[in-house]
Structures are given as structure tokens and as C-alpha cells.
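I have been asked to look over a protein record a colleague put together. Thanks in advance; the entry in question is below.
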Amino acid sequence: MTLSITARCARTGQLGIAISSSSIAVGARCPWLRAGVGAVSSQNITLPALGPMTLDLIEQGRSPAEALDEVMADGVFADYRQVTAIDHLGRVASFSGSETLGINNAVHGDQCVGAGNMLANPGVIEAMVRAFERTPGPLAERLVTALQAGLDAGGEAGPVHSAALKVVAEPSWPIVDLRVDWAEQAPVAVLASLWQAYQPQLQDYLERALNPSVAPGYGVPGDER
């Protein structure tokens, strides 16, 4: 019910996930990120706890592969889970249990890992990974482009209804956290439009948080600075 791309920017060290699903509010359950540590997408028949569990182990020094091996051996109904992980060094890992739904695939790339289930065809994930690898620009832009490439290659077997984009950097909070919890049509296109609207304001929001004395005004009625 889900396709995702989990990745790191080699230039900035940012970590991010772009994800879409036929289910409602995929961004509320599946993407888990921790600045300076890693990113995990817990999908298929989702157990959200797998995200923090895996990130805890990575933070303790395990590689993503070691972390997933340990988590999946811990009574979490592993046969039903599909999980991808990347750490702050760009190392990746994936797990797809024997009960992963429909056509499913996971592909490891350069500083990225893509995975999905109930796919139209296995090539969907390969298309996402290759699009991420060849797309320049900010991490968020590359992730959205990769997700759209997966849809263009066939996407899920049925329609998708939700999408999310999340990126972490040096602050303790996500610098990008955009969600389309439900759309009858084209949630990834809506997500791309949200990103295009948010991108010019991203640095302003960081400055307002970190040094409000030099931050630009809000440009709304009542802000006379």
C-alpha cells in the first residue's frame, strides 16, 4: 500500500523521506527521522514503533543492517513488515517480510533506498532510486522528483491518496514536514506544490527559530516591522 524513497544528501548531510500510499495519512505513521542519526520508513502492514526502535540502535552505533536485523528478531511480526533505513553516513538497509503485500521490491542506491508494496510492477522502485541519483538540487526536491518518477513508472496497483515529505538537518526538529493526508486524486502533485510554496520560506522559518532578532517580518496584517 506504500512506496517510499529514504535518502541522505552527501553535500549537506540532510536526511529525508518522501512517501505515498493508498491509505490515509501515510505521513502520520511511516516516516521516522532523527537529525544526525538516520531515517527509517516503516511500511506495508505498518508498525510505527519500528522507526524509533531502529533509530535508537543506529544512534547506539549499529549499522542500518545490524539495526534492522536486531529489531526484526524481537517479536514484531516481522513477516508482515517492510522497512528501509539509512544512517548519517549514507549506509542503507532494507527488510521485506514474507507477507509483504502484492508485488513488492526494495532497491539500494547511492545514499538512498527505495521500497514499495502492492506495486504495479517491480520497476517502480528502480525508477525512484535512479531518479533520485540523477536529480540535482536540494534533498527535498530530489525526493519529490523521485517519488513522482515512481508514480510515472506505474506506482501502486491502485490509486494513491496520501503523501508526505520530511527532511531533517542540524536542528532538533524537521526543517521540512509537509503532508497530504487525503486527496481523491494526485496527492504527490499536491505535495510537490506544497514544497514549491514552502521552499522559498524555509530559511525564513529557520531564522525565526534560531535568531528572531534578524528574521524577516511575516508580511501579514498586524506585523508593522
The radius of gyration is 17 Å. The chain has a mean pLDDT of 95. DSSP finds six helices and ten strands in the chain.
